[in-house]
Amino acid sequence: MFFICYPKCTTCQKAKKWLDEHNIEYKERHIVEENPSYDELKEWYAKSGLPLKKFFNTSGLLYKEMQLKDKLSAMSEEEQLKLLATNGMLVKRPLIVDEDRVLVGFKESEWKEI
Fold it and tell me: Per-residue pLDDT tens for 41-62?
């Protein structure tokens, strides 16, 4: 299982603490140093069952600076995935990725279920 995060993100820190407290093994991946590729994002999006917008870090500075709130609806899924692959700071985090599922963001209740 991969735990894809930005170490300075407080939500990522909470998620990591939760994983450690529950003795869940994972391989940590720094989302900026090793940005998800287009192919990875496409696979994760398909596996997640979530709308693609959920993969965007809508509260991030880069998202706001690029005014993506107004632009995403005019972009195709392929264009959105390619954009996400350009910069890890655009991607909502943390991400949990294993063979069967993808979790985006940290919601303790959701993580407990799985």
Answer: 999 999 999 999 999 999 999 9
